[in-house]
Each structure stands twice: as C-alpha cells, then as structure tokens.
Amino acid sequence: MLSFYKEELVGETANHVSIIARCAEGRTKEEVLWRITEDTIGSQSRLRKILMNHREASEILDQLFEGYISFHASLGGYRLEELL
C-alpha cells in the first residue's frame, strides 16, 4: 500500500495492486488498493480485539504499527509527502 503511489508514477506494473487488478475482471487499481486498505484496517482491528485483555501485547502492537508507518513515511523514496 505504501509503495503503490511511487510505483504507479513510474509505470511499474509488477506490484501487488497491479497484478490483482489484472486478475480481477472489471476492478481498477484504485478499487483493488481500497480493498487492500480496508482488509489491512480490518486485520488491525481484529488484532486489537484479540489483544485487548493483554495490555503489554497491545502496547507492543501499537508501537509496531507506529514505528512501521513512521519509518516508511520518513523515507523519501516512497514520495508519501506528495500525497499530503
């Protein structure tokens, strides 16, 4: 998801979103990207529910998500600043 923008700008088609869109008749890359995003959010929500009674594990999960997003957002190669 995070790399799709930069890949699309350079015309790359050998990525997860493009491949799924080619295989899914009638679905655009944008529709596939939204579906992947929704699935990712749903997975995160399920993980939070599973861990809600385990404070330490929940905190670690939050740190993991925050660190993952922060790390990738800080890398100029993804060009995410152009989306803001």
Folded structure, characterized:
This protein is mainly α. It has one domain (4-83). Helices cover 68% and strands 0% of the residues. The chain has helices spanning 4-9, 16-23, 29-51, 55-74. Helix 2 crosses helix 3. The radius of gyration is 15 Å and the shape is flat. The chain starts with a helix and ends in a 10-residue tail after the last helix. The mean pLDDT is 92. InterPro entries: Isoprenoid_synthase_dom_sf.
List keywords for this structure.
84 residues, mainly alpha, 0% strand, flat, Isoprenoid_synthase_dom_sf
Question: How many structural domains can be distinguished in the coordinates?
Answer: 1
**Sheet with the most strands, sense and barrel status:** none
Structural class: mainly alpha
General shape: flat
Q: Mean of residue pLDDT? A: 92
Which range does the strand content fall in?
A: under 5%
Q: What are the secondary-structure elements, in order, as H or E? A: HHHH
Using only CA atoms, what is the Rg? 15 Å
List the total number of helices: 4
| Helix fraction by DSSP (H/I, runs of at least 4) | 55-70%
Give the strand tally: 0
> Which spans have pLDDT < 50 for at least 5 consecutive residues?
none
Instruction: Report how far the terminal alpha carbons are from each other.
Output: 15 Å
InterPro entries: Isoprenoid_synthase_dom_sf
Architecture blueprint of SSEs:
Elements: H1 4-9, H2 16-23, H3 29-51, H4 55-74
Helix pairs in contact: 2-3
